[in-house]
Amino acid sequence: MTSSNDTSTAPVRVAVVTGGSRGIGRACAERLAADGCAVVVNYAGNAAAAEDTVEAITAAGGRAFAARADVADEVAVEAVFDLAEKTFGGVDVVVNAAGRMVLSTIAELDLAELDSLHRTNIRGAFVVAQQAARRLRPGGTLINFSTSVLGTTIPSYGAYTASKGAVEALTMILAKELRGRDVTVNTVAPGPTVTDLFLEGKSEADLSRLAAANPMERLGRPGDIAATVAFLAGPEGRWINGQNLRANGGLI
Asked: Is 43 a catalytic residue?
């Protein structure tokens, strides 16, 4: 764990962001911190990137620390939530941005890759949701991540979209199970968004084609997705519950 500034006076809200060291997860962590949350930046293996995220938050006047855990490991995830409560006093926002993507046709996919993908994307989402369901304070929110590819059904995304379909189903059911708790549960489904992972292996022609696929005629930015997450986590998003928001610029 890397601690930030003095934590003697807890802020109003506390956020746990899985996959918070890079890409969309980092953008969400930084945006929630800017909105006044103390943030726990969860990461799986890249400690340097997590440290960098914490430093960016604290340099801007926020409060954060990094905590390592494989989201599919229930003992490790429970320890992250314990640490959030011990350090900041509780948990109000959980953003489950951790995930893996493997592209292959269904006919050719190595089933070992399928198992690894689903361990993170399905089991991991379930483990984090389970802790969120147990820990979130009244007024809290859990935000899971899906993908707009569930609507576009692009070949080679079969394993990935199958895992995200499970996340969407989990979200809707958990929202109902938390009846009376004043806790919302939603899913954000980004379209093509510029991150290091997304850019890997793509040509300029690929990027141009993907940018032209939505009416806004550009690729999404991590900040676009973080703004959606911030809306759901904030007071103006309280009436949205058990929903899947496709944050994709109009991609159909």
From this structure: no
Query: pTM for this structure?
Result: 0.93
Strand partners, 142: 94, 185
Tell me which architecture the domain covering 14-194+222-241 has in CATH: 3-Layer(aba) Sandwich (3.40)
DSSP letter (8 states) at residue 237: G
Of 160, 210, 230, 233, the catalytic one is 160
SS3 per-residue string spanning 111-168: HHHHHHHHHHHHHHHHHHHHHHHHHCCCCCEEEEECCCHHHHCCCCCHHHHHHHHHHH
DSSP, res 19:
T
pLDDT tens by residue, 112-168: 999 999 999 999 999 999 999 999 999 999 999 999 999 999 999 999 999 999 999
Could you report the per-residue pLDDT of 180-208, keeping only the tens digit for each? 999 999 999 999 999 987 888 789 998 99
